Amino acid sequence: MQRAADGGRVSCVYLDGSAAQPTAESPADILALLGDRSTLARRPDFRVQQATSTGELSDYRRLRRDAFVHEQGLFAGHDLDDRDADARTVVLVAKDRDGTVVGGVRLGPVDDGPDLGWWQGGRLVVARRAGRHGIGAALVRAACARAEAEGVLRFDATVQVRGEVLFTRLGWRSVREITVADMPHVLMRWPIGRIAAQVAATKSALGPLLAAFHGAAGLVDGRAALGGAGFVGDDGASVPGTDVIAACDAIVPSMVERDPEWAGWCSVLVNVNDLAAMGASPIGLLDAVGAKDAAHIRRILAGLGRASEAYGVPVLGGHTQLGVPAALSVTALGRTDRPVPGGGGRPGHTVRLTADLGGGWRTGYRGRQWDSSSHRRTDELRAMTGAVAAVRPAAAKDVSMAGIAGTLGMLAEASGCGAVLDMAAVPRPRGTAMGDWLTCFPGFAMLTTDGPGAAPLPAGPATDAVCGELTTGQGVGLRWPDGEITEAVAGPVTGMGTA
C-alpha cells in the first residue's frame, strides 16, 4: 500500500492496484491503512453450520427434491426415508451471504439400533444458482469432521459415479461399485485413523527404545531379559528365583500437576490392574513423589492413600522430594507362582473383554478417562482384580493408554498373530461414543484370550463378553454387523516382537 498527500487529504492505493477515494467528511480507510483491504474486508461467500430450525431443514429438503426428484429423476415424488426421521441424523447446510440455504448434507448412524460408531453420509446437494464456490467440497469436509467429533470409526457414503473424483480428491477411498435407485454409484469410505494414531503416539517407540536391554542374542548375563522367556511387553515382570511379580507405572506429569488427588488414586489403580493381568495377588506398593511444595504432595498422597485403603494394598515405603516439578510413579509387588502371559494367545482363540461399565467420565477428562473405580467397595474391587487369577486364561492384558483396540493389538503382537474385534459385541457404557470407548483409559478393563468355550472371568460388578478372536496375520480389524472388516491397527504395535 502507498500513501500520498493530495491537497491535505490521504489517498490509498491497494496492492491489487485499486485506489480508495476518501471524502473530506470521512476518515481514511482504516483497512487500507492496515493492509490489503481485499483480504481484511473479505466476507466468505458461504458458511457451513448445523441445521437447527424447521425452516433450514425445509429449505435443504426442497433442494434435494429439486435435484434428486425433478432434475435427476432418481426418486418419484420425494426422496425422504427413515434416516430423515431418525433424531440422531445430523444435517449440515451451507448458507450464502444473505442467509439463504444453498446446499446441504446429512449424516448419522446406519442402523436403527445402538450407535456402534458406523455412520453414513448422504443426500449431498448444492443449488444450481450457487455456482462454483467449493460448496460441495466444504460440506463433505464438514461432514467428515463432524463424524470424527462424534466418535465415529467407520464413515461411508454412496456417491454417484460422477462424484467419485471429488471425493477421491478430498481423501476418500473407493470400496466397490453399487447400485442406488437404479443408477450406478460407488461406495466410498472416509479413512479414520484415530486408533492407529493413538497406538503410534503411545506405543510404537517401545521396541526401538528397549532393544538395548535384550543384548545381541536377547540375553543379559545368560538370562532372558525384560520379563523372561515367554513374556514380552507384559504388564508386570517376574522377579527371578521367586514368585514375586513387580509392576511399575508413572502418571503423566500434567495430570499430577492439575489433578493431584486423582493422580494419586490412579497411581494405585493402574499398578494393581497390572498385577491383576498377570494373575498376581498384590502385597504392597512403593511410591516416588515430587512436587513444588508440601501442600501439593499432601494432595497427591491423599488420593494415593484413599486408593490404597480401597484396594486393600498397603504402601510399604518410597521416596518424597520437594521443590521439583510434579511427578509420581508407583511400583507394585504381587505374588503368583503361575503368571499369566500377555503373549499366550493363538489363532482361533476367542477374545473376551471384561470391563467395569459403572461410573462415568472423570470431570475434565471426558472421552479420555472413565472413572469406574472411585465409588466401588473393596470387595467389588478385589473381585475384579482377582478375576484373571481365578480362571488363568491363555493370555491377559490390562487395557492401558493404547485403549481397548490398541491393547488388543499388543496382545496379538506378543502372541504372533492378528485380531478382529466384533463391534456389536463390545461391552460399552450406555451413551458413550464407540470411538471414545475404544481409545479411552477405562478404569478396569481386561482383555483375555483362550480356546472356544472357556469360562468367563468371575469379575463381580464388571461386564464380561466374548467380542472377537485372534487370527493369522497381524494388526487389529474391526468387524461390523454387515460383515465388513475395517482396519484399526495395520501391524505390530510396539515392535517388541513375539513371546
Give a short synopsis of this structure.
With 499 residues, this protein is α+β, with helices and mostly antiparallel strands. 28% of the residues lie in helices and 30% in strands.
Shape call: elongated
Number of strands: 26
Radius of gyration over C-alpha positions, nearest whole angstrom: 29 Å
Question: Helix count, per DSSP?
Answer: 15
User: What are the low-pLDDT stretches, counting only 5+ consecutive residues below 50?
Assistant: 1-27, 216-223
Question: What percent of residues adopt helix (DSSP H or I)?
Answer: 25-40%
Strand order of the largest sheet: 4-5-6-7-8-10-9
Approximately what portion of the residues adopt beta-strand conformation?
25-35%
Structural class: alpha+beta
Largest sheet: 7 strands, mixed
Distance between the termini: 69 Å
Kindly state the mean pLDDT as a whole number?
89
